[in-house]
Design brief:
- The strands form two sheets. Strands 3-4-5 form a three-stranded antiparallel sheet, covered by helices on one side. The protein has a two-stranded antiparallel ribbon with strand order 1-2.
- It is globular, with a radius of gyration of 23 Å.
- The chain contains 14 helices and five strands.
- It has helices at 3-24, 61-82, 102-120, 130-144, 149-165, 170-177, 179-214, 219-242, 246-254, 267-278, 290-293, 305-338, 342-366, 384-410, and strands at 41-43, 53-55, 84-86, 89-95, 98-100.
- Strand 4 (89-95) and strand 5 form a beta hairpin.
- With 411 residues, the protein is mainly α.
- The N and C termini lie far apart (54 Å).
- The protein folds into two domains: 3-168 and 278-410, no CATH class; 169-234, no CATH class.
């Protein structure tokens, strides 16, 4: 398909998504709450941004949510069994002339499911984390083995943001994140000598101490934390060699020095940064970018569309796009704060995290500040499945905002 055909298809898909968003914005989202009918009023969890008494409705929530979970898992299983392969990954299902990417549907459906779980079962003790983690684990694993490392990271980002919004203690959140710096320190220790080992030991002791102070079991929590982090550190070299594919390892290392392999793994980053830099302050003009027209910028209609934007619209265009996403995020944050139920508040925060995590990662990737992850720029990169799901997310947010306005008008 030519570039003109791609953009025509993108506009048609966007128009369909807009119609779906308008329809979804009229739906009574409170019916997805897992709260029982007799729980018509309750206090928001102490410290959570949504405060005050909230009316809660139940409706047909359980059958709808179970169906959503089963459809999500079935679609991801179908991809792994019958999906079509492209660029070394099996991520698409062929439905006649169309290709759909079920992982995009899984991101939104998982966000809805986690919002319902956190609404019905607030995080009051560590064992309560098993429910939201259990909901995320299956789709995350099925996406990871496609393999689609970038999309799998989105699931983690959405879950962590929603847990933070649920007023879970920040110390618990830090303990959940602690394996990531532990793995990084483990990789440094592999070739960094005794100094890296000392830093690793200090980190594990610090996390164990935090677990002892803030987990209910104290010594058991501290011991389990130290054991888990030690195992993570020891397993990191093996996971690096055997758990990642060659191109994934290259992506994680070459962004630091892409000139090591300028025609291979470093090509995308080099061409992307050259394209953005050549745009200067005001750009070369729309559809006038030399690197873009001559196809030197790879995947310029999907993952690296921000590079094409930087060449043609320059620094001004990049700032306007980033500022637009920032204003949109601020608006969603306000809607989440004013939402009338915790379910709606969690849902808006999850959609906000889902979109903005991709924006940040994509901008960092295309400017050479982060590794190539294959995450597109929401609403701008070409992709039917992603655009439709993002539009549905906007529709869900609009439904929450509409209920806020109705409640204020009758209060």
């Amino acid at each position: 398909m030519s570039m003109d055909g791609l953009w025509l298809d993108h506009w048609i898909t966007g128009s369909v998504g807009l119609v779906l968003a308008v329809y979804v914005s009229r739906l009574p989202l409170q019916r997805l709450s897992l709260r029982r009918p007799e729980e018509q009023w309750r206090e928001a969890p102490q410290g959570s941004p949504p405060q005050g008494n909230r009316p809660i409705a139940n409706g047909w929530s359980l059958p709808i949510l179970l169906a959503l979970l089963l459809v999500t898992i079935a679609m991801l299983l179908a991809v792994n069994l019958f999906g079509t392969e492209a660029l070394g990954a099996q991520r698409w299902l062929a439905l006649g002339p169309f290709q759909v990417q079920p992982s995009e549907f899984a991101k939104l459906s998982t966000t809805i499911l986690v919002a319902a779980i956190l609404d019905r079962f607030p995080i009051q003790k560590p064992v309560d984390l098993l429910r939201p983690f259990g909901v995320v684990l299956v789709p995350w694993a099925l996406v990871l083995i496609q393999p689609d490392l970038g999309t799998s990271l989105v699931f983690g980002a959405v879950l962590l943001w929603m847990l933070y919004w649920s007023a879970m203690p920040w110390q618990w959140l830090l303990l959940l994140l602690s394996p990531l710096p532990t793995a990084l320190l483990g990789a440094l220790q592999h070739g960094g000598g005794p100094g890296a080992l000392v830093v690793q030991v200090i980190w594990i002791v610090a996390m164990g101490t935090m677990a002892w102070r803030h987990l209910p079991w104290r010594w058991i929590g501290a011991g389990l934390t130290a054991a888990a982090l030690t195992a993570t550190s020891l397993a990191t070299p093996w996971l690096w060699e055997h758990g990642l594919k060659d191109y994934q390892r290259d992506r994680l290392t070459l962004f630091l020095n892409p000139s090591v392999d300028p025609l291979g793994g470093g090509y995308h980053i080099i061409q992307s940064t050259i394209g953005i830099g050549s745009g200067g302050f005001s750009g070369t003009g729309l559809l006038q970018g030399q690197l873009t027209r001559l196809q030197f910028i790879p995947e310029q209609h999907t993952d690296f569309i921000f590079s094409a934007l930087g060449e043609e619209l320059g620094f001004v265009g990049c700032v306007l796009v980033v500022s637009g996403f920032g204003a949109w995020a601020w608006r969603l944050l306000k809607i989440a704060t004013l939402a009338k139920t915790d379910f709606e508040s969690f849902l808006v925060i999850g959609i906000l995290a889902m979109v903005m995590f991709q924006v940040v990662v994509n901008v960092f990737m295309t400017t050479g500040l982060g590794p190539v992850t294959g995450i597109p720029l929401p609403f701008m990169s070409y992709g039917r499945s992603a655009l439709l799901m993002n539009c549905l997310g906007i529709g869900l947010v609009a439904a929450v905002e509409r209920r806020c306005r109705q409640t204020r008008s009758f209060s």
